[in-house]
Amino acid sequence: MASPVLLLVAALCALLVAAGETKEEAAVEVSAFRSRATDPNMEVKFDFSPFLIQYKSGRVQRFMGTTFVPPSLDARTGVASKDVIVDQGTGLRARIYRPSRRAVVGGGGGRLPVLLYFHGGAFVVESAFDPVYHSYLNALTARAGVVAVSVNYRLAPEHPLPAAYDDAWAALAWVLENARHGAGGEPWLSKHGDASRLFLAGDSAGGNIAHNLAMRAGQQGGGAARTAIRGVALLDPYFLGRYVSPGAGRAWGFICAGRYGTGHPYVNPAALPAAAWRALPPPRVLMTVSGQDRLGPFQRAYVDSLRGSGWRGEARLYVTPGEGHCYFLNNLASPKAAMHMATLAAFINGS
Question: What's this model's pTM, rounded to 2 decimal places?
Answer without folding.
Answer: 0.88
